Structure formats: C-alpha cells, structure tokens
Prior knowledge:
Helix content: 55-70%
Pfam family, one: Zn_clus
Largest sheet: none
GO molecular function, one term: zinc ion binding
Subcellular location: Nucleus
Organism: Talaromyces marneffei (strain ATCC 18224 / CBS 334.59 / QM 7333) (Penicillium marneffei)
Main location: nucleus
Radius of gyration: 33 Å
Amino acid sequence: MPSVPCDACALRRVKCDGNNPCWICIKNGQQCTFLKVRRRRGPKGPRKSTKIKLEQLQAQLSLPRANTLDQKPISLGIYFTYLDIYKDSLYTTWPIVSIDSLKARLNDRQTIDYESYALAAALSAATIVQLKLTRSEAMTKKALIMEGEDFVKECLRHRNQCNYQNSININLLLTSLFLHMYYANTGQMNAATFALRETITYSDLLRLGDPFTLQFVYRDERELRLRVFWVLFVTERTFCIQHRIPMTMQKINEFPTFLDAHDINPHSVGGFCELIRLFTYVETGLVQSMPIEQAPSSSSYSKKELQSISTDLDSRTHHLNSLGDLQITDIETTRAWLRSLLWQHAASRFMLESDAKNVQFTPEYPFHLARDLLSFLSKVQSSSIRAHAYSMEVKLSQVAHSLLDTIAVVPSIGQMRGQQYGPEHVVIALEQLLGLTASGKSEHLSLLRSRMVELEVWGPSRLCLTLPTHPQIESEVDDEHESGSVLGAGLEEEINAWVLNAPCGVEK
C-alpha cells in the first residue's frame, strides 16, 4: 500500500517517502508532522445543492402521474355520441370508417382493443373541430378546442399501448389521418405536417393504391383501400398547396365503385368520385404558381394545356342534383378553387388577354369567379359550408386573394371600385364567409385581412352576412331550414340583383 504523506508533502502535492521525518522535510530543514486527518477517497456523498435539484426533479416527474390518475378516461357513451355525429354529418365527406363495426370492437368487454380506441378518439377529435361541436351552447370556442384536445391525449395514450411504430395496418393509418385533420383545423401546422407524412408512410408500407396488391384482396377491402387512398390524396393536395410543401402521392387509375351498407345516399359514391376527378388535375406544375407580379418558374403548363383542363372542369360525370348539400358544396367550391389556380398560373406566365375569347383567360376573370361562387353559396345551408372547415378556408382564401390581385394590378377592375356593386363588396363577403368557417388561429383569415387593409378594401359591404362569425351548429339548424341561405335572409335576392346590375365591362 502507498505510504501516507506528511502534512508538508500533502500540502505541496509532492511524493513523500512516508518516513518520520521524511527525506523532503530533512532536505528543506523543516518540521515533519502527520497531524492532518485524512479523508476517505472517492465520492463523499451528494452536495446540498445536488440534493435540492434531485428533489425538485422528482417532484416534477411525479406531477403528471398524479394528474393521470386523477383524470378519468372518456366514457364510451361520449365516444358513441361523436361517432354517431360523424356517421350522420361527415361520412359522405370521409367515407372510410364503419361506425357500427368500430362500436362493436369498443364494446368488447373481454379484451381492450387499443387500436380501435385510438382510432375512435382521433375520429372524435377531428369531428369536434371539423363541425365546431360543443356539449352546450354556453361553451366558448376555447373550451371547444380543449375538449378535442382531451380526445387527442387519450388517442396518443392508447396508441402508445399498441406499439404503433412497428405495427402497420389501416386502423393506425386512419388514426394518423384524423390526427392530421385535428391539428390542421386547430392551427397546429407543424404537428399537422408530421401527422400527414406519417399517414402517407403508412400508405406506402401498406401499398394502399398499388394495382397489383388490389388484385388479390377481397372486394370490401379493395373498396376501403381505394377510399382511404383517395381521401388521403385529396387531403395531401389541399394541405400541401396552401403551405407550399412538396406533394408525394401520385394519382392512380382505380376509383371506388362499390356501394356499401354505410352509404346513406346511393349516389354518394358518385359524388365522391366527382370530387376525386377534380383533384386529379392538381399537379405540381399547376400549384407552383407565384404571385402574378413575380417571374414564372421553369415548370409550366402551356396555354393549350390550361384550356384543356378548363374544359375538363366544365364537364360533370355525375348529376349533382342527386347529391346532398354537403357534397355539392364541396364539389362546386373545389371547382372554383381550381379555376382560380388556373387563372393564377396563366397570369404568372403572361397568358392573359383582355380580349380573349375564353373569359377564364382575361384579367378580370377572378371577379366573375368570385361573383358566381357567392351566388351559389347563398343558396346552401351554412352547416354545409362549415362542415368542410379547413379545406373550405383554403379554397375561399385562394379565390379572395386572386380577386385582390386583380384589384391591385388590373386597371379595369380598379376603376369599378366605389361603385354600387364593386369588387370590394365581393372581397368583404368572402372575408365574412371565411370568418364563418375559420377555426383556431386562422392564418388564412389573418393574411386576407392584412391584404385588405393594405389595398384599403374595407368599409360596409352591400353583401353583409347576418349570421354570427362563430355560431353554434345545433341552435341554428331550424333557422337555416327556414331561411335556406347561408348568407342571411334576403341576401340571395341581393346577389342576383347584383349580378344583373354588374358594372360596365363585367360580363353578365
């Protein structure tokens, strides 16, 4: 064992031979002593500050556990309430979940199906924010979002129980898809993007739209795969266009055909396919258009190709009269949105002509488009507009921004401002409609209002909406059926009069 150093050698940190007196002390002519008590080598125990930090950390970690124990799980009855609302109000928009089958799995008392619970929670959260549902009319908008958040927390808790990253199936794909819809509708765009990419990854791993795979599955599974694929396709197109995120899904030649027992309207599949057909025109070259005052990119359609797409948009493969208001509203608003994208693409590539035979390639076309869209929306129920939530925000804001572009740079439109039925009235009416559908912190509404202030497009609108900005759905159903108009009593007649009395230079 090493010898114990004397006090002088220990203080000077030099090697001591351990003798008394040691050689170093003899050499230096100093007294050699061994009076200092030596402490044990190694850890001496935690410092006081370390102990305090450790106690604080343990206290913080214990808080979530206590909250988790105190928070009661959402009852099955509440789940069923929102699942039934989805079945009645949103199934024609998202025809991808069999509610009866899901309820049966949730009712199984022998085993806990965590995947089914996660799916039900995500679907309930998406339904709440999509339709802006509340348990009572007194609940505020903040309380509405918090209730949806409760379902999201429960969804994530159940999903963690089923090892979702190593399990690949349709239920987990749908869970991620509905989480994306919840996040998008509540303004959580980063979370919405991650959830969307996760859903697409599930789709790729499942080979959801692969023609070879579809040949070897039963009819019901094939139908479900196609419906999920196309709902995801439409969702990605809508989200990525607005946020300039690259689109990854490619269209396929297979479409849903089989009418299942959950389709309330026998024509609903046809309406779903009509919407899909419109979205197949949304390609990267079309949606990469920049504002009309900027230079075009290398990726571009020719004018002939744009005219061909415009002609295809005019055609209808299904009679809309056989569909419900919800699907008709979605289809016609999507058609107007695509026309606005076509016009913006043509404008950014200098293809517009004031004397063009096709009005869709004239500088004033956004005024025609917005006017016709308002005329259509004045005839449908407000619930049919609000039910499309985020996607409706995207489409209405695109139409409004195109009209603002024309107000800013097209002289003939600028000269109409201040007239009895001017373009600023159309923009204000679109802004009010956007306020009707907006949820959470709407980036679209904020951006539109900023541009309106910049271009001085404010003041009382001749097309003023009479409904509140954030109405309660349940309390208005009867009133809507009486008025029959989303824009309020008498506004439909005012719009028709406005169309007939359009300013000079605007095609009637």
